[in-house]
Amino acid sequence: PPSPPPPSPPPPSPPPWPRPPPPSPSPHPPPPPQCDDTQCTSAGNDCCAPAGDTATCRHGWTAVRNQRDCFGFRGASYTCCPLMPPSPPPPPSPPLPPRPPRPPPLPPMSAAERALVRVTSAFQSHGLLTHS
User: Fold this and answer.
1) DSSP 8-state class, residue 27
2) More confident position, 28 or 46
3) Are 79 and 31 in contact (CB under 8 A)?
4) How far apart are CA 71 and CA 19, in angstroms?
5) Phi, psi at residue 90, to the nearest 5°?
6) Statement: residue 3 has pLDDT above 90
7) What are the strands, taking DSSP E only, across 34-129?
8) Strands (E), the chain
9) Separation CA 28–CA 13 (nearest Å)
10) Per-residue pLDDT tens over the stretch 57-104
């Protein structure tokens, strides 16, 4: 009698942990070249901070989100970039143009001129002076 066919090998077992999907090409521009993922201080130092986690970096570096996915979390990836030096102060404003000189003070009025001003003002306030 013919011998029975050998049993087929068992199917390969899946890995013990789920693997993250391969990264898809990012539509976002890459971070500046001076940024460095080795400066991340997230849990696991993996530059992945999902919602609720704070993206952190070593002293002198600042976290910059790059909108990439990490470990199945959408947009949770970030990198660390050097702190930007403070911007230089704006240039000083040009000096204001010089003020015109003040007119010389009027000479003091005589007693007659002061009396004329009082009378003219009184006539004007009562509508009695129509022209000057």
Assistant:
1) S
2) 46
3) yes
4) 8
5) -65, 155
6) no
7) 61-65, 78-82
8) 61-65, 78-82
9) 37
10) 998 899 999 889 999 999 999 999 998 767 788 899 999 999 999 998
Task: Give the integer Cα–Cα distance in Å for 120 and 130.
Answer: 11
Distance CA(90)–CA(38), nearest Å, equals 35
Yes or no: say if 40 and 57 are a contact pair by the CB < 8 Å rule.
Answer: yes
User: CB within 8 A of 82, min separation 6: which ones?
Assistant: 34, 35, 60, 61, 62
Place of tokens 């070593």: 58
Q: Exposure of 73 by Cβ count < 10 A (0-12 exposed, 13-18 middle, 19+ buried)?
A: middle
Residue that wins the pLDDT comparison between 7 and 29: 7
Residue 7's Cβ-count burial label (10 Å; 0-12, 13-18, 19+) is exposed
